[in-house]
Amino acid sequence: MAVTANGHGGNGGAPEALTKSDFQSDQETRWCPGCGDYAVLAAVQQFMPELGIPPERIVFITGIGCAGRFSYYMDTYGMHGIHGRAPALATGLAATREDLSIWVVTGDGDALSIGGNHLIHALRRNVPVKILLFNNQIYGLTKGQASPTSELGKITKSTPFGVADQPFNPVALALGAEATFVARTIDRDKRHLTDVLRAAAVHEGAALVEIYQNCPVFNDGAFSALTDKDVKDANQIRLEAGQPIRFGADGERGVARGRDGGLEIVEVAKPDDTGAAADSERERSERGRAGGGPVGEDALIVHDPTRPDPGLAFSLARLAEDPTGPTPIGIFRDVQRAVYGREGRVPPEPAGADQLGELLVSGDTWAVS
Q1: Of the candidates 70, 136, 277, 278, which lies 20 to 30 Å from 171 by C-alpha distance?
Q2: Strand, coil or helix: 298
């Protein structure tokens, strides 16, 4: 049941529903004009009241970077930690305060460079925190150096001859760490972003949400293939649980198993295709696999984020080398596993006077006269 920010209801004690304003601090929001962080902040503040959790039981912990300001703009408890350490701080808090909803907001540099180990171990341990990783493929706060997700060959202030390092794929990294909830969304798609945030919020355990976030100053248009109106339908591979993976303006493309056992993007046959109308779905699928032509819908992968084995989700994460072409977005994995510090633990009973006495005189003791 929703309550007011102070836990007390108006109108004679009746609880009042929380609103977006209950989560907006009095701090002036300051990012560069057009920054994708504004859209993410608005979406988070808009959906937070749905949780029915008062602001004083919610904590936002941030690291260093443009995303680090997030905690100042949420009217909740919060902490602006040092570079890369937000998951470690959140782990300590989660281990001692089960009553809190704990969120980490971090960037691709903060989380994947100096904070890399903290991130993967928080995911591996299934610490009950929600990690929002803003990925703009650049260091924005320090004015445009290459980050761990910058694409090969990218010219930046720190790589005048082009990036030579293979970039991280945050979703694949999280899946490799056996994270129980992994998703990807886009700052400019408010509905999709909010749906993913809701799913992460109700997940019991660690949740990582990679958010493609545009940096209009130092890396503008990095995700234009997924956001520009005239091409986004051709490039957004939306993952929907229980549905064949299809995309395109008319669902004309899809994801299927390749002959080598991996995943590949294929053309999907229409029922009225010449020479295929009388064929069964299976016949069209087999012909497509053998000859490279269109396949039937039954050849497509049916998405199931609840699969215990993360192998298929990992293959989906690796389907696109970078977000300049067809790229999966949505929930890759959503499974249940023992939550760090909350499973199989028996609450201790208070020690009695006899037990305390035995403890004080146990082991090596000395009598001082």
Answers
A1: 70
A2: helix
